[in-house]
């Protein structure tokens, strides 16, 4: 069986030897679905009984009239679960979870030197500080032992996001080893569902209180005084682990069944559309019980597809998110003609530039649709190795014998690895695949397919060097 797969690594596109670029363009059957699942159209619904007050949420535009009425009624019943401002966010009970720093006793407090800011930034910093004070997220402090600076970060809309330089404090904090879920398993579990609802907490980190003994260590200086956080801010070393701990405590009995969660990304799922309402009611009830507030601007309810952890999940399977990956897929080919755009470079458009440009156009229209693997059914593994990169593709046949991609991985070779003989590069691809896709290897029987099979290559070697044997 010929291996005709095209793989990508960060900035590099590669094909198994000895295929040429033209030979690689016709993708195998499992990669020929040109349809790309995109986030579906959404409808804005006002949950407020007073038309003057706007409390909007987003629901799918593709619901039946009965489904739409049912969903709106459910969301209105639980509208207290949403927050449209900081004032509507009571925060999680510290008895459930609070953020601790566990700074070592040997750590010496650091007071950072004062920084100066642009006058325009200072005005926006002042406005943000006033909002944080009004919400109770920060309090003034007189004699801080730890003191960090503000780092103003420009948003796309020109506004300033106030971040804190917690690097010194983070160095003094040991890592929280609370386990994060396996992202690959979460994505597989979210695909193939009849209906989905995507939910995101309103200023999620700030819903978790700081431990009283550690709160003042988060002190930061501004042109208008020194303050410290009473809630968990962004930028702390173990904030993600604490948030995951909170979500696990709240939804522990539903994870892997009715919901999937990775830190602040929460997905409510159901195999059939009819059972989605009872599942969603259960999730909203749990949020109400623990005072967790959701951000209506970042939630979407009753959809059949959506973005999750860098992928687009839907009933048919899993698509690579074009917003996240197109630049990595085309950058290798762009390298051929982007130097022509540099100042002072003579513009000469040759056959190589045209070939690379045509390849970019092909890649844009051929993003693959992946599918979660069926338990027990064996997986196929294809390997690829070029002079600059290695890769692997997992695939699986469906009931009709049609092959579908499950997952693909790739990476650039290091400087030393580029000097490996082809046989060693293929073996390296197998080792990389085994490490990267271990959870798939453990759960399924595996068939190594294609001509780039280490066993087939090694069988024709009369003398094996130590690295291969």
TrEMBL record:
Reverse transcriptase/retrotransposon-derived protein RNase H-like domain location: 349-447
This protein's name: Reverse transcriptase domain-containing protein
Highest taxon of source: Eukaryota
Gene3D superfamilies from the UniProt entry: 3.10.20.370, 3.30.70.270, HIV Type 1 Reverse Transcriptase, subunit A, domain 1
Domain Reverse transcriptase, first and last residues per copy: 153-313
